[in-house]
Amino acid sequence: MFRWAYSIDQSDLRFTGLKICMASKPSHTSLAAEELLRCLSDPLDQGAFGLVYTLENYPSLAAKEFQLDGFADDTIRELECKLNTYTKLIHPNVLRCHQVLRDGELIYTIVDRYKETVERMIIRHKRKIQPIPEQEILLVLEQAASGLAYLHDPKKTDAKRNPLPAVVHGALEPSSILVSDGVHFALANYGIPGKLMQKGSGAATSYSAPETPLHGRITVASDIWALGVIVYELAALNRPNFVKDGDPQVVFTGDWRPNLTAVKSVHIKEILGRILVLDPEARPSAKELVDLVKNPMVIPMMVSEDLRTQMKSLKQDLKSKSNDVTLLKSIIEAQSSDLAFLKKELRTKLSRIDKLEAQCNDYALQMQSLKNSIEQQRQQFNKATEEFRNQIARGCKLNNLIPIDDSSWTPLMCAAFIGDIETAKQHLSDKDKKNSDGDTALMIAARAGHVNIVELLDPTDGNGVTALMRAADRNDMKAAKLLVPLQKKRTAGDMEINGLWISRGTALIRAAAYGHTGVVRLLAEHENGMKDAHGRTALIIAAAKDHVECVRLLVGYEGGLQDNCGSTALMHAVYYNHVECATLLVKKEKNMKTTHEWHGCRSGLTALDIAKNNGYRELVGVLSK
Predict the structure, then answer these.
(1) Residue 558 confidence (pLDDT)
(2) Which run of H or E residues covers position 619?
(3) 505 partner at 20 to 30 Å CA-CA among 156, 191, 352, 443?
(4) What percent of the chain has pLDDT over 70?
């Protein structure tokens, strides 16, 4: 049975287990819910958004069905609100919606019944290979434009003079223009919410204006473009494909013009030339289209005005070019005398060049002799250099590379310095010793960039924990700074860190978990924005653990980022009642919402909602400012 129904006459509302949704007063008698169920007959048509049924005993009416399953509550509420408004629209070229009823996941609208659509009219003419007369096309254009002008009008009112909003059709195509007796046309499927439109016919994309795929915008100008495509299809009996298989970004560029060769009517071709333009602002309004069709002299006048403007511009260009020609003539005359002088000068210099060429030939012979001599000396130098290198390789030992007077350097440190891994393996027992500068062999190897020595001294374990991560864990700033170039941006496996279970955490995330401010400051430049397996950033971890200074450092890098549930650092701070951390985060994350259920909180909640749910009065005050 129906969960709620909308009764048209508010003076006769029935509450027989039904919930009233909307109200208006149409010209037809309203149907009770049970009567609608009995009257639903065979499907009349498969519309873009659901079936359209005939109604027994009501030959002038039809019932349009909207299927709601799979849509969010806000989308359904938006549809209900729009349908409520549409029951108040009254225009001969806009489909009249008399009544709205809901049955669970279905909404039915009681509308006027029409015999066919423009789509079927086109198909009929295609089958007969019979062109549609120009006057019939102009009649479709005039009435559809009249309906759009009414929908687009922001100043229209209902029967009680209450203001009604402007409506963008948003899904205009041949199947959404209804036809009665071949002379009366009305717009249907107007103003449907965007998420419901995605469930409609895929063919609608052929009627989409360029700004829709390029910028995601649908405006009143987009409706005008769609109407132009429909007029093209009526005139050519073939739907245009301006993009074909190309990329709209590449096709719709500044010099794009529609190919209208398939349109034979000069009148219609001129109208389409003004509708199918890339700039939405340059397209005529729906009201202007009505005027174009009603007054055939408007287009020639507009064309004449364009020609006069072009003629004036051409005359100005011609005058400017004439002045340029006069100036060029005077320049040529002046340069003719200069050219004669230059020719004489050239002959003099050519004789000098001949003499210089002879001298250059002599110099070339001398240069070749010098090159041969230099090549011999280079070979001798290379030979001497190679011998010197061999002597160094044979005679230089470790003490030649490291100050021999610094007794604090162990053999392991020396091996780490020069990258001698074999020697390093023999002295691993000294890896924790420090020299007079406070450096361990690990620090020396990291500073020298010897990755293999670093892995030998502090190897990455089976869980992916690196030397840099261990330095971050123990707040070892000096070691961390040296290891960053070698091991930054790596992640480890699953483990518990300071009471938090972290998977694929970075060195920065681990430092944030422990609250090591200095290490966080160092690593933030290299690992900010990286997340663990749950989508948590270092900022989220720091906020959850109430590490205020770490939050202060990281908010500039990671403020506004969300984890896999859509929760932010601010939400974590609020959830654990960390007031000071929340104060630092409120500016960047106050209005963000969860996208999934999180810690018992449903999706779509803000940090303020979470604070209210948990009864944190102080936080509610902070977040309400």
Answers:
(1) 94
(2) helix 617-623
(3) 443
(4) 88
Has residue 260 been placed in a domain?
no
Q: Supply the CATH number for residue 455's domain.
A: 1.25.40.20
313 alpha carbon, distance to own chain's centre: 41
Q: Tokens 């107007």 — which residue? A: 190
pLDDT band with cut points at 50, 70 and 90 for residue 157: very high
Number of separate helices (H) and strands (E) present in the chain:
25, 12
Specify the pTM: 0.48
Q: How far apart, in Å, do the first and last CA atoms of the chain sit?
A: 47
| Closest by Cα among 534, 461, 473 to 501 | 534
Question: Which of 414, 434, 459 is the endpoint of a domain?
Answer: 459
Residue 74 lies in a domain: no
pLDDT, mean over the chain: 85
Radius of gyration of the chain (CA): 41
Residues 451 and 598 in one domain: no
pLDDT value, residue 320: 80
Domain span at residue 425? 404-459
Identify whether 529 is part of a domain: yes
* pLDDT reported for residue 345: 86
Q: How far apart are CA 132 and CA 2, in angstroms?
A: 45
Least confident of 105-114, 288-297, 488-497: 288-297
Q: In residues, how long is the chain?
A: 625
> pLDDT at position 34, please?
78
Do 611 and 470 have their domain in common?
Answer: yes
Whether the per-residue pLDDT at 385 is higher than 50: the answer is yes
Specify burial of residue 558 (Cβ count, 10 A radius: 0-12, 13-18, 19+): buried
CA separation, residue 486 to residues 123, 364, 482, 491, 512 (Å): 69, 54, 8, 13, 20
Average pLDDT on 338-365 reads 86
Percent of the chain with pLDDT over 90: 47
What is the separation of C-alpha 344 from the centre of its chain, rounded to a whole number of angstroms?
A: 68
Q: Tell the residue number behind the tokens 């620090």, with chain if given.
A: 443
Decide which of 439, 459, 479 is a domain's last residue.
Answer: 459
What residue spans of 396-537 are helical by DSSP H? Answer: 411-418, 421-426, 441-448, 451-457, 467-473, 477-487, 507-514, 517-527
User: Same domain for 521 and 568?
Assistant: yes
474 shares its domain with 617? yes
Q: What domain count does the chain have?
A: 2
